[in-house]
Design brief:
The protein has 522 residues and is mainly beta. It is built from four helices and 34 strands. The protein has two domains: 9-439, TolB, C-terminal domain (Neuraminidase), CATH 2.120.10.30; 447-513, no CATH class. This is DUF839 domain-containing protein.
Length: 522
């Protein structure tokens, strides 16, 4: 599914020092109460969300946003926290990627889209199942193909090598320029397998990645030149899941060698992980990676990102157990469960974990967590049928961008109001931005105002909703809206009139009215 946020350690230090300029950190919240999914998107009351785009919405360059929104990568323009490109993967067959030009208005505190278009993959023989990915240190997008040509040969009528360039068409990481919204190339040197995502070290040469397969392998790639993923050394991990291991060099020069990444890994006895999802580098220098079918996030230390061939301290960082979650209604013991998927570190070194399976929670593992001293919270629960995907942050970590993939079409029984005042039903794929309420949308309280111009304690309709008084005579006091004459304090509620047309003192019916309904009423 999706995610990738690249962290430069030097930038992280600067952000720690300056975070007070924005008040609270985005990870300052009380856990939501652990429950099963319903038709709403549940997040802490301290936070709010704004819809960016929905499945089926028109793209300004033509066409509509496809379904199955996944990796959602914010690429800042000139380092901006409020002006950038938003890349959205679509995990479909054929695959797709959409790029939006978005900006934040500091006056309204809302985001808007000025341009949007679908990326054309025809120059590289198309794409498929674009799952997670990354924003590179040089501000390009890597979109990862989760299916290989060999895997889908019996399912879909696609040739294995349609352009006869020697490379299988699918099973690669694709580099995209978000400025021109065009494909740079498929990065063949990263190997052919079921790509989920990758993370690029701040040396701009080393990448770590994994295969999202039942028989999946963990890889390290070292580019020959910085910011150039077209050539380099590809290694696979062999060793313990709780201890140490080594990087084993694979043959990785010709198309045939690059097509055979999985076969080479199996032949040298590489360690098998069942479903490697996102891989991230933490501010502590450890490399973290989620393994969905093993219900845990591992981490390890690489002896040297460029020249090192040994791995130390491979261990389970979080998962595969039960955690105590404190929320506003008490404390609940919650099993971590199946499906830890997308990962991202925020500016405080907290690890955000998106769950594809079980209750589809958005977990936050606080900086300083260990299995013996756990610090685990639940930030969100996505709507029925959905999984959370794709998070990246703005450089200052004020804003979190994510998508909600494949929610149930039956979620239209209820709506939620977003930060822009739009009513959102989570019945189709949705891309959002999330922030503390002070940082997104209006924080003004809307009040109900009652008009009682004559001050008799009775108001007239309509009740006016406004943050401030609409004018003289309005009050915040809740009053009966039954005043018959708001210019006369001696006239207010309606009178009950009795119909006694024959004058015998017995009424046939009654009617409440400010004035006599007609002949015979008394």
């Amino acid at each position: 599914m999706a995610i990738k946020i690249y962290i430069k350690l030097t930038l992280l230090v600067l952000l720690f020092c300056s975070k007070t300029s924005f008040g609270q950190n985005i990870a300052d919240f009380q856990s939501v109460e652990p429950t099963v999914q319903n038709s709403n998107f549940v997040i802490p009351s301290s936070h709010t969300f704004q819809k960016i785009i929905l499945e089926g919405d028109a793209l300004t360059a033509g066409g509509v946003l496809p379904r199955n929104t996944d990796f959602t990568g914010y690429v800042p323009i000139s380092g901006s926290n409020e002006n950038g490109y938003l890349s959205i993967n679509h995990e479909n067959v054929p695959g797709a990627n959409s790029i939006l030009d978005i900006s934040f208005n500091p006056n309204t505190k809302l985001w808007s889209t000025s341009y949007s278009m679908a990326v054309d993959f025809s120059p590289v023989a198309g794409t498929i199942a674009n799952c997670s990915g990354t924003v590179t240190p040089w501000n390009t997008i890597i979109s990862c193909e989760e299916y290989t040509s060999q895997e889908i040969a019996n399912q879909y009528p696609f040739p294995r090598d349609s352009n006869a360039d020697g490379y299988d068409d699918f099973g690669w990481a694709v580099e995209i320029d978000p400025v021109t919204k065009t494909v740079i190339d498929k990065r063949w040197a990263l190997g052919n397998f079921k790509h989920e995502n990758l993370v690029i070290h701040n040396n701009q040469r080393t990448a770590y990645q994994g295969a999202d397969a039942t028989v999946g392998y963990l890889f390290k790639f070292v580019a020959d030149m910085p910011q150039d993923l077209s050539s380099g050394k590809l290694y696979v991990y062999r060793g313990s899941k709780n201890g140490s291991g080594e990087w084993v060099l694979l043959d990785n020069t010709t198309p045939q060698e690059r097509n055979s990444t999985n076969a080479q890994s199996a032949a040298i006895g590489a360690t098998v992980f069942s479903g490697i999802e996102d891989v991230e580098i933490g501010p502590d220098g450890y490399v973290y990676f989620a393994v969905k079918n093993e219900d845990r996030v591992y981490r390890f230390l690489d002896s040297n990102p460029i020249t090192g061939t040994t791995v130390a301290n491979m261990e389970t960082y979080v998962g595969n157990t039960t955690y105590s979650i404190s929320h506003q209604n008490g404390t609940t013991n919650v099993n971590w469960g199946y499906g830890n998927d997308n990962l991202a570190f925020d500016g405080e070194g907290n690890l955000w974990v998106m769950q594809d399976g079980d209750n589809n929670y958005i977990w936050v593992v606080k900086n300083g967590h260990s299995q013996s001293n756990p610090k685990v919270e639940i930030f969100g629960i996505v709507p029925n049928g959905a999984e959370p995907t794709g998070i990246t942050f703005s450089p200052d970590y004020r804003f979190l961008f994510m998508s909600i993939q494949h929610p149930s079409p039956n979620n239209n029984s209820s709506t939620q109001t977003d930060a822009a005042g739009a009513e959102i039903a989570f019945d189709r794929a949705t891309t959002l931005v999330i922030a503390l309420k002070d940082n997104l949308g209006s924080s003004v309280t809307i009040n109900n105002w009652y008009l009682d111009a004559d001050g008799d304690g009775y108001a007239v309709l309509p009740i006016v909703q406004s943050p401030t008084s609409p004018g003289p005579g309005y009050t915040l006091n809740v009053l009966p809206t039954t005043d018959c004459d708001d210019t006369n304090p001696d006239v207010f509620e309606a009178t009950t009139w009795y119909l006694d047309a024959d004058g015998d003192g017995y009424a046939a019916s009654t009617m409440d009215s400010c004035n006599s309904p007609g002949t015979g009423y008394t």
